[in-house]
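Follow-up to my post from last week.
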Amino acid sequence: MLLLGLALLNFAQGFGADGKKRTWKEIRWGMGLKYISALFAYALVFNPLGFVVSTFILLLFLFKGLDRSSWTWKTTIMSSTIIVVLCYLIFEVALEAELPPGILEEISKRLY
Amino acid sequence: MDLTGIYLGATQAFQIHNMIYCFIGVFIGTLIGVLPGIGPAGAVAIILPITLNMSSVSAIIMLAGIYYGAMYGGSTTSILVNIPGEAASVVTCIDGYQMAKKGRAGPALGISAFGSFIAGTLGILLLSILAPPLANVALSFGPPEFFTVMVLGLTLVIYLGSGSMVKSMMMATFGVILGCIGQDLIFGVPRLTYGVEALWDGVGLIPVIMGLFGISEVIENFAGEKTQEIHRGKIKGLLPNIDDWRKSAKPIARGSLIGFCIGLLPGGGGVIASFVSYAIEKKFSNSPERFGKGAIEGVAAPESANNSAAVATMVPLLTLGVPANPVMAIMLAALMIHGTPPGPLLISQHPDLFWGVIVSMYMGNFLLLLLNLPMIPLWVQILKVPYRLLFPLITIFCIIGAYSANHNVADIVILLVSGWVGYLMRKYGYEAAPLILAFVLTPMMENSFRQSLILSQGSFLIFFKSYISMSLFLVTAVFLILPIFKKRKQLTESS
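User reply:
Got it. Predicted complex:
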């Protein structure tokens, strides 16, 4: 069954191939690529940095870096903070999603 | 109809926490329906991890609420802004937006809410009448019959796909391969994992669906420019007048029935139902020239159809355990996680779940009517939330949803990869539905396939021994061969 599936895929790919080349260039890659690579970087630091810190940085990038936006740094930081805190309260405190604490926990451990 | 069942369901659905979950479900559903950029499949996938702490009845009540709630909400943006909030409301744009332009946005919104209510209620009635006997028939199914039912289901999904059939077939094959990743069901040998430990349990359904239906939309929005325009001007007079009612009564009735029948088919559901019922209304109408210029029938029929179709898609899930569209695939996953696997035994073994969900759907429909009519101005306000705030939020929700199901960063990576793949698929016109369904059905198909072969000690003839599986195979073959003849006919006609 597996082999059959693979064979079918190969067969079907032959169909798609010439169509693909033509439309390949029509995509504006820039924004989408930036966005997805930011997210991959985010996945990398998700555990070590923890949910709060990494999400905050990601939001800063999404609001300021990706959009040629008119938002000032102040509004960007403000809204990122609000969103992160809200997400933390909803998902971690209320719904017990057990998001990774990361470096914030380390810091608080050293402090106390 | 089973009155004891309804009573049992009422005792479940009218518990205060279930009523609250039902309300939250339809509320989120309407919200999702109103907001472009995320559809019911992505939303249900995001909410699923949250429901893990609930009882299975509450979870299904809420998830179902999101699905049929989205069908209501989608019409609002179609009519006011000419942007369909979700795919099932694309047709509503045609006449709905024209009505709004003529200053008749109120009646258009009104009739779509009432039509949805009537169709939804009718659909639930049919569901509660049809599902129990269907489940009884399905009780006589053995592994070979289940295998053929699923093969037929998958074929229909491919056949009904809106784009090219070859592309749908490619996607289904891709889904089958994805579904094969992980340990072999019987021998426990890892397949297609390439030594990656995270793939041993297979690829998770939730991150894949969120990637294909959530992240990919966000990428599309970042990569392209979608403008945000809002219909300004007051909406008044939500109640349609008598003339509107006279014109829409029959379209609503026809739309409900057509929607229900299409919803029963695998691959059916709101989108196709709304298109078909619009086309049929245009044919039935005495004055087809009014369509496309603000005919109220063109709003009433598809809106009714997509709601009754949304209810009808529950039938194959609850009676056979076979999901008919991506949303139902997530519902299937939800039922599995909660230890109530759907199938012919569900109604007899967990009657509280089945009837509880049905009664809650009656309630949810009523709630939606209340939510939709007086609160339309609020929903319009929500449309004004800037995209640059909305899309990062969707991203964060998807990530938290993907992570919290298994507490594994690998799921985030799967989410991102499928998001990118989903974006490319959108760009090149490949549909995600066949992929998701094949992906979900493959483990189930393989299971029943191998069980059948164990029963028959390796002989493939077992699939042709019972009348049911034999005839199902024949129907499958017809659907596979039919397009070839169609194509031939087209070719000969054109040349």
